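WARN retry 2 of 3 for item q-0093 after timeout on previous attempt; input resubmitted unchanged.
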Amino acid sequence: MPKAYWIARVDVSDPDGYQEYIAANAAVFSKYGARFLVRGGRFEAPEGTARSRNVVLEFKDYDTALACYHSPEYAAAKAKRDGRAEADMLIIEGYDGKQPG
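OK item q-0093 returned
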C-alpha cells in the first residue's frame, strides 16, 4: 500500500500567531503518525507561483492522511492558523509502482 502526503504551500502573515498553529498541530500529527519530509527550508520555484513556506508530511497511507485532515483535533489546530496564513494544500497518494529504467 503506498504512503500518502500532505503538500502545503503557505504564506504566513502573522508569524507569532502561526506559532500557535505549529504548537497545536504537533499532537495531531503524532497521533496519526505523520512525519515531516519538508518543513520550510530553502527552495527555488522555476515555474508557477510560489508561496514563502513549503511543507510535506508523510503518512502511512491515504486513508490515514485524510483521517488526520478531517479529524476534530486538526480542525481545532487549523482554526489557530486561520487569519494568520494563506495556504494551498493537497492530500495525495504516493506511487509505489515500477520506476523507469
